[in-house]
Amino acid sequence: MGKEDNSFGAQLQEYFTYEGRLNRLPYFLRILGFWAVMILLLVIAVVAEMMSEYLGMLFFFILAIAYFVGLIFLLFQAIKRLHDLDKSGWYLLIRLAGIIPLIGWIISLGFELYLLLAEGTHGQNRFGPDPLGRNEYNDNNEYQDQYNRTYEAIDAEYETVETEYETVNTYEETDETVYETRE
């Protein structure tokens, strides 16, 4: 087994890669985190603008760079979310419909709601293992319950067969004893 790399670079790479899958909650939290950082930077930039025009310009420049990097970050997160839904990352082109006024915005909003609310595929798909660790045998304990019932039935049948075997074995021992005494 390989040792997990928990370095800052490895963590950063995990956020800026399109490989793998991302389920709903981490996707939502990452979007929320992005917007929280953007709002915080905007507040800082506005306050800096009030203090000094040049300082404000500097912070708005930093905000613009952070926003651009954040959009790339969100792009990677959306691709991984699509992978969790067993869809190609190319489906993100649907978001380009947002450039069309009103109808495009509705389409983009619907697509984003789909990404936020749709349940990912259960078990491994072509993009990797399920981030929730589900598979066909432990998904929602449906198969686990079936396994438990089957195991209990087999165990009960085994005990019945074992009891019958002991009865037959006892009978054969008794029959051999009777046979030996007759000779």
Structural class call reads mainly alpha
Overall spatial form:
elongated
Instruction: Give helix % range.
Output: 55-70%
What's the number of helices? 5
Low-confidence spans: pLDDT under 50, at least 5 residues?
none
pLDDT averaged over residues? 80
Which sheet architecture does the biggest sheet show?
none
Q: Tally of extended strands?
A: 0
Number of domains: 2
- In whole angstroms, the N-to-C terminal distance is 68 Å
H/E element order: HHHHH
Radius of gyration computed on alpha carbons: 31 Å
Strand content: under 5%
Keywords: Membrane, Transmembrane, Transmembrane helix
InterPro entries: DUF805
Transmembrane segments: 27-48, 54-76, 88-107
Pfam families: DUF805
Q: How would you explain this protein's 3D organization?
A:
By secondary structure, this protein is mainly alpha-helical. Helices cover 68% and strands 0% of the residues. The protein has helices at residues 8-15, 24-51, 53-84, 103-117, 142-182. α2 (24-51) packs antiparallel against α3. It is elongated, with a radius of gyration of 31 Å. The protein folds into 2 domains: 17-135, no CATH class; 141-182. InterPro entries: DUF805. The chain crosses the membrane at residues 27-48, 54-76, 88-107.
Summarize the structure.
With 183 residues, the chain is mainly alpha-helical. It has five helices and no strands. The protein is elongated.
Spell out the key features of this protein.
mainly alpha, elongated, 5 helices
What's the arrangement of secondary structure elements?
Blueprint lengths: L7 H8 L8 H28 L1 H32 L18 H15 L24 H41 L1
Helix pairs in contact: 2-3
